[in-house]
């Protein structure tokens, strides 16, 4: 997993600035702000369905990237690539079913993608993200809220960790995944909890 992220984007971007500003992090000079990375050991992307036959699983492999004009946070963009061909439910039959043509169709589409097109501040801890989710070759617009945790600062290293979390509800039918409709509800909950960690290196 990779993350292209900078503390300048965090401090000035709409996606994270309300909480970080409230915590007084603007006292960090922008010219000496640290770069950030995703903590791949702690990051989690899971999903759950309900119905007569519920299914739970995780996507253990994904990449995340952020790009944008540091002085125009409304233009910041989040990009995520999720390797659906590595989905894990703990049950071989379920794994094979999800990877098959009726669902993720991983032989043709080994990964899904999300690309944001608008980020709005809701309050000091929440932002609304709008963007396009592509699954099995079908692209649909989605919208969800992101919550940011209070930054944790290591007293010795001064390295900061900020958790971003979200629960995203989608209707699988919108992506052509209509199989087993009598057993599995169409609504799927995607849960994200991703820690961003400062590297301790100064950005130029």
TrEMBL record:
Organism of origin: Acinetobacter sichuanensis
Coiled-coil residue windows: none
Protein name per UniProt: YceI family protein
Domain annotation Lipid/polyisoprenoid-binding YceI-like: ranges: 35-197
Signal peptide: none
Gene3D superfamilies cross-referenced by the UniProt entry: Lipid/polyisoprenoid-binding, YceI-like
InterPro entries listed in its UniProt record: Lipid/polyisoprenoid-bd_YceI, TTHA0802/YceI-like_sf
